[in-house]
Amino acid sequence: MAAGGFDRAEARNVSKIYGRVRALHRVSLDLTPGRVTGLLGPNGAGKTTLLWLFSTLTTPSSGTMHFGDLDPVRAREARGHIGLLSHASLTYGDLTALENVTFYARLYGVEDPEGESRRLLEEFGLREALDRPAKTFSRGMTQRLGLARALVGRPSLVLLDEPFTGLDRASTRTVIQRIHHLREQGAMVLMISHDMETTAELADEIAILVRGKLTHRHQGRLDGDALRARYAEVAEGAGQAAQEASA
Amino acid sequence: MSAQVEAGAAVRAKVVARQGFLQVLRDAAEIAKKDLRVELRSKEILLTMGYFGFLVVLIFSFSFYSNDAPISAVASGILWVSVAFSGTLGLGRILEREKEGDCIRALLLSPVSRPAIYLGKTFGVLAFMVVVELVVVPAVDFFFNLRLTGEQAGLLALTLALGTIGYSVVGTLLAAMLLRARAKDVLLAIVLYPLMLPVLIVGVKATAALIAPDLPMEEFVAWVRLLAVFDIVFLVASLWIFEPLVMD
């Protein structure tokens, strides 16, 4: 692993328990460079929990997280190489869009932080809003700002939780192109989305979580219809089986 | 290795190469600068702290009267009570801002060292408290007829600086620790004041010594040394335990 970058991220048999709730149960998932993994599942399936584990901001109750050659107990050292877009914007409402991204660019040691931030924000269609406070942004604009912030450090691992929420058609296309670009650049991308069309367009592999368990994994691409059918079969089938078992 | 990994690694290599004490200070300054910028836009913390601190002094100045004049002997206690109470308001809010938008996660995910994040927040709290002290000290001087000389003012600045450093160091740590707690404002006061008692008592004693008619310099120096020791102990301990306290 050169200079702290890593080219493999893996969850190995991880479980996560919050109090009496088991959010994840013995899940294993590996991410490789140049591939987009689509993580699907019904609400409460544990998708976001798994994303947080990959972010290293939370630790598994059991099992291990592996980042490159890092010893799992030193997984936190992978931080700084991970870009995270979560439900929250992770930006400061009183700062402008440019100030927000530039602040993070400085923390990541980006050369020409303001120039790079400006370029990213313009790429995400925020040229006209560079000097506006983030708190005045619409949901879609906040999402794009969050993406610019997540990518400013050129992360090896990109974690996207519902990246298309609130985006109009044009912005969705921009984000899709950017994710394609990340793949070409060799980043590992883990993406949670309920949008089957965009997931089908982007994902090189699909992982489906149901009730904290990884119930299905598909290597290779699926078109929208095939993905919907596969999801219905796996997620709804598993839900029905669980209901029958509990009855 | 992929282009993205190499590009990111190259960026971080520079950071890793600069992970010395100076880099920690530089990152901390960046975080503090951001806090000050946010505050300059909203002005909510400074106005609240300053207003509250001034009111405390004003109310006490009408409470401690003897022979139609305020009792200057209580001024040192009132000064520190005012600073401590208004400081608590700022502490809660400055950390709360990191929770809004979940920015604390983005900070923790960045390659910045944990001590830098902690120090950055501490510098921010310190700066706010210094501004509040610029309001409170003249108010105490005026309402309690202290008429501080230049030498006394200088020594008071030193005492307040040391006390404020100790307060900010411990306060920031506790506020960060309670960031996800439900009744954090109440808990902060409950946990902070017992811990800050040594600093506050020593600060009051040092201030009382320096506003006494004949400045007992030896006594004053002893109190100030004790404040400096508290600061060092609290700072080292806080840097050490900051990350485990704010994780998960």
What does this structure look like?
- The complex is a heterodimer of chains A (247) and B (248).
- Chain A is an alpha/beta fold.
- Chain A folds into 2 domains: 1-81 and 156-220, 3-Layer(aba) Sandwich (Rossmann fold), CATH 3.40.50.300; 91-154, no CATH class.
- Chain A has 7 helices and 9 strands.
- In chain A, strand 6, helix 5 and strand 7 form a beta-alpha-beta unit.
- The relative contact order of chain A is 0.17.
- Chain B is mainly alpha-helical and 248 residues long.
- Helix content of chain B is 83%, strand content 2%.
- Chain B is built from 9 helices and 2 strands.
- Chain B has helices at 3-17, 21-42, 44-63, 75-99, 103-109, 114-143, 150-177, 184-211, 217-246, and strands at residues 65-66, 69-70.
- Chain B has a two-stranded antiparallel ribbon with strand order 1-2.
- The longest helix of chain B has 30 residues, at 114-143.
The CATH topology of the largest domain in chain A, please? Rossmann fold
At CATH level 2, the architecture of the largest domain in chain A is: 3-Layer(aba) Sandwich
* Structural shape of chain B: globular
Percentage of residues assigned to helices of chain B: over 70%
Kindly report the average pLDDT value of chain A. 89
Annotated CATH homologous superfamily of the largest domain in chain A: P-loop containing nucleotide triphosphate hydrolases
Instruction: State the domain count of chain B.
Output: 1
User: What is the global morphology of chain A?
Assistant: globular
Major sheet attributes of chain B: 2 strands, antiparallel
* Rg over CA atoms of chain A: 18 Å
